[in-house]
Amino acid sequence: MVEVATQQPNTREWLAFVLVWGSAVLVTATFCWLLGDIIWHGLSHLSWIFLTAPPENAGRRGGIGPILVSTFLILGVCLAVSLPIGIGTAVLLVEFTSDHSLFGRLTRRSLDVLAGVPSIVFGLFGNAFFCKTLGLGFSILSGGLTLACMVLPILIRSTEEGFRAVPSNYRLSAAALGLSRTTTLFHLLLPAAVPGLLVGLVLGVGRAIAETAALIFTSGYVDRMPESLLDSGRALSIHIFDLSMNVSGGDANAYASALVLIILLLIINGTVSWLATYGLHRKIVTV
Amino acid sequence: MTSSSSNTLSRWSTDDLLCWLLRGMAMIASTIVMLIVTFLIVEALPVLRHVGVLRFFTDPSWHPAEGFYNLTPMLWGTLFAMAGSVLIATPLGILSAVFCQYYAPTRLARPYRRLIELLAGIPSVVYGFWGLVVLVPLIGEIHPPGPSLLAGILVLTIMILPTIALMADASLANVPQQYVRGAAALGLPRWAMIRGVVFPAAKSGLFTGVILETGRAIGETMAILMVCGNVVQTPSNLFDPIRTLTANIALEMAYALGDHRAALFMSGLVLMALIIALTISAEWISRGRIYG
């Protein structure tokens, strides 16, 4: 503190002020540049026809209809698998095991590691396990299952928060009334934990829809309309990647696809913050 | 206990059933990591047997078709890109958090935090695309060719900045109020208080943030693949094109067979080892936190 006082605190304070505001302005400016660029170039190509038409000429012309369908199918598979497993694990961790038990600690540790695994490694794993070992090939199913592994940690973490937010006298009262744990869970705890669950769901969807690297070698590149879950389907993010890297003259449609992806994510993000502000804080009134 | 033992048999079995069902789900969730590591090892085994670990570092070049498997240029690419972006993003992110907590008027702090959260949600492929069409041509004008280590560092910086900024914001918010009030009562000016009181108290959270962003920088694939040029070489300056470990996997996995494919899984294993080491050190650091 003495050092601070002797070295002209005013100059130092002024410098820190400039640096702090400068970095905030820099970050905001970069953000506006990025978003502005994509909106500016993407908006002129965005139309209802673009959203529904199939891509033509390797995506240079036409729209993204089949690609949107594939994206949502992959997302559907991902959620259908990850939601039950995620909720089940979270319930077990919060309601059925103590925080210090070996099983609980091991599960948490492995989920922490899972949360940090790079997406390309998920891609390698998905390719080796789902495509080759289970024989699913390059398909929407493989892609969705790979993504399910990826979003599990996020889903479990938020659901856990949701269950922890339920006041413990719910559990005590239910036990005092002689309700079985199954009844308590489905009729009392689960409804009360819905906000946290929804936040996890939306965060997971956000992560899954943004993913590219894990999908290249699991769901594949084919841009036709998928006929079944065992068909290869191209996700929106892979479409952007392919248009900008492998297709010369695909930039215009890549911009429009990027804009669609960002709008989807903005909707998802808006839902999270709305839920976080109005959902999580408005708990069921405790009597 | 007596009351529960007098319960009907059927209720006990529902509860038991539920408990076992949940245990099964948790088992699935917690074995995924083991599965990933197992499959990486199994798939990498052929190349480890034929080639051995040492040749990944001593071979003359990376030409898998001819049996040369030198990973070091890619390892350097990954390390340089990571180091550069972490060096820029860390001060920027921490200052951003300081802005949110101590400098911005309340009306500005909330939208700014929302903006950082939005940045965190933007897909890597969009960052890569923006870098490719905006940053790369700009860098190309200064010093051709455009796709370069510098482009990679800049795009990575923007990508990992939200991670450290949000983490730092949370740990600054966790600093006990009486520390801040005490400092203010001593008449410390704002920055002196932040440097002398807030940063030491929030130290472990800040370090955890740095580790998390490092993990993200190592694991990032698409953005870096799109802006770095992907030439296998050890970069001699910022404007040289590079290829990272992750980009190498993404580029060659499509046509790799046999030992080549196994070598790619081997590099996946290297990435996984780096991430596990980072996760463990993050946990180790957060154990020594000052505030509860």
Oligomeric status: heterodimer
Approximately how much helix is present in the residues of chain B?
Answer: over 70%
Q: What is the CATH domain class of the domain at 67-233 in chain A?
A: Mainly Alpha
Q: Please give the CATH class of the largest domain in chain B.
A: Mainly Alpha
* CATH architectural arrangement of the domain at 67-233 in chain A: Orthogonal Bundle
**How much strand of chain B?**
under 5%
The shape of chain B, in one word, is: globular
CATH fourth-tier homologous superfamily of the largest domain in chain B: MetI-like
The CATH architecture assignment of the largest domain in chain B turns out to be: Orthogonal Bundle
Compute the number of strand runs of chain B: 2
Order of helices and strands of chain A: HHHEEHHHHHHHHHH
Number of distinct helices of chain A: 13
Tell me what the structure shows:
The complex is a heterodimer of chains A (287) and B (292). The radius of gyration of chain A is 24 Å and the shape is globular. In chain A, a hairpin with a 4-residue loop joins strand 1 and strand 2. In chain A, helix 12 runs antiparallel to helix 13. Chain A starts with a helix and ends in an 8-residue tail after the last helix. In chain A, 74% of the residues lie in helices and 1% in strands. With 287 residues, chain A is mainly α. Chain A has 13 helices and two strands; from the N terminus they run H-H-H-E-E-H-H-H-H-H-H-H-H-H-H. By secondary structure, chain B is mainly α. Chain B has two domains: 49 residues; 226 residues, MetI-like (MetI-like fold, Orthogonal Bundle). Chain B contains 13 helices and two strands, in the order αααββαααααααααα. The longest helix of chain B is centred in the first third of the chain and has 42 residues. Chain B is globular. The N terminus of chain B is likely disordered. Chains A and B meet through helix 2, helix 4, helix 5, helix 6 and helix 7 of A and helix 2, helix 4, helix 5, helix 6 and helix 7 of B.
